[in-house]
Specification:
Elements: E1 4-6, E2 12-15, H1 21-28, E3 33-34, H2 45-50, H3 58-61, E4 68-74, E5 80-83, H4 89-95, E6 104-111, E7 113-114, E8 118-126, H5 130-143, E9 150-158, E10 167-175, E11 201-204, H6 206-212, H7 217-220, E12 224-233, H8 238-257, E13 264-272, H9 274-279, E14 296-305, H10 311-332, H11 356-369, H12 374-377
């Protein structure tokens, strides 16, 4: 389950499904190699890849799953097969963002990349920079793939325990190249936003950077968490759409969640450009996204709280707010990009957002490879194609 090995020419790494990305990056680092894995090292390999997988390298290489050249699979009837672009290509297509409805994956074979020089780090910003944060997120979506070596994850966090200055912002910045101050990230390091920390970018490795992002994780162990996602067009809605989501979310959270014990609520912005869509194969990809739809921004709503007695309050708020804002985005013509499986909530119909034709094909593939619905009924967790 935790096998890690390289092909003879080191172009492909074989990864057992029990690994996390920290183990993968650490294994590849001595060979000066990496692969297109998760931003956070403690994320598990299997769930990340079966949901597509966003990464700091996505502008250049698309979803993490786009780099999977072969899935070793055990079908529900016990048959062992290899799914590639030429052997069981329909299953290979489905597994790239189709979840766990089809087979048990016993190994992922992924293309490797030369590590090369990497500069990465993070910037922190206070609430006085809200307007510039919105502008910078929107600008990154419009122009961020002009240099595909750059990658950004931007967060906004409401923490009522912080007092009057209860909003803060963070950018996680990554550059796959030998530039300490890359122009593509300049808006985050002083051109538009002024970080409160003096030196956002430093020379590092994929393994070290993905591990450094654990910072807030230990303090949240044991906390209750929820995620949901919306897709916002960067062209039709512009800054107004980003501002509507930002302001609407935090105004509602302050009004309705202030009494929840240990609560923090946030937004994570993942800009998606044309180069990302093209790297995935465009409309041929299981998600059905076309380059003409880009750029858009996946905006993930995040919630943590401490007391099970507040579950109904937070979960009710999350579903209600995402539904209302999703309806507004649709009505304004600002919705785009469908739903990203790995950050969706259980009441969001992810596979329906892939388009009617792709959903129909996913159901046909599921029927072919698991006609008795073993993985639908007996494998817990995740979104099931049969239920879409």
């Amino acid at each position: 389950m935790k096998v890690l090995s390289l092909s003879e020419d080191r172009s492909v790494v074989t990864i057992g499904p029990g690994n996390d990305w920290d183990a993968v990056y650490s294994f590849l680092q001595p060979y000066d190699l990496t692969t297109v894995g998760a931003r956070l090292g403690l994320v598990g390999v299997s769930g990340h890849l079966l949901g597509g997988g966003m990464t700091y390298l996505s502008n250049e290489h698309g979803f993490s799953s786009t780099s999977v050249v072969e899935y070793e699979c055990v079908l529900a009837n016990g048959t062992i097969i290899s799914a590639t672009s030429t052997s069981h290509p329909d299953l290979h297509w489905s597994l790239r963002s189709g979840g766990n409805s089809f087979a048990l994956i016993t190994a992922f074979h992924m293309r490797t990349l030369p590590t090369g020089p990497i500069y990465a780090g993070f910037g922190t910003y206070d609430s006085s920079q809200t307007a510039n944060w919105i502008t910078t997120v929107h600008s990154q979506a419009l122009y961020g793939d002009a240099d595909t070596a750059g990658g950004v994850e931007a967060t906004a966090t409401w923490n009522p325990s912080a007092g009057p200055d209860d909003l803060s912002y963070t950018s996680y910045l990554f550059y796959h190249g030998d530039e300490a101050q890359p122009a593509i990230l300049a808006n985050w390091t002083g051109a538009l936003l002024t970080p409160t920390n003096p030196q956002p970018l430093n020379r590092t490795t994929v393994a070290a950077f993905s591990r450094s992002l654990y910072g807030g994780v230990p303090q949240n162990l044991g906390a209750r968490t929820r995620f949901a996602v919306l897709g916002v067009s960067a062209t039709r809605g512009g800054e107004a759409a980003v501002a509507a989501v930002h302001d609407g979310f935090f105004d509602a959270a302050r009004a309705q969640l202030a009494g929840v014990r240990g609560v923090m609520a946030g937004l994570v912005a993942l800009p998606v450009g044309k180069r990302f869509v093209e790297a995935n194969g465009g409309a041929q990809h299981v998600t059905g996204a076309e380059a003409g739809q880009a750029p858009w921004i996946w905006i993930i709503q995040t919630y943590t709280w401490s007391d099970a007695a507040d579950d109904a309050v937070v979960e009710g708020f999350a579903e209600r707010w995402a539904g209302e804002m999703g309806a507004r985005l649709e009505a304004e013509g600002w919705a785009e990009g469908g739903l990203y499986l790995n950050d969706a909530e259980r009441w969001q119909n992810v596979f329906a957002s892939y388009g009617e034709g792709n959903l129909r094909k996913l159901k046909e593939v599921r029927e072919e490879y698991d006609p008795e619905m073993v993985f639908t009924r007996l494998m817990p967790g995740g979104w099931k194609v049969a239920d879409a």
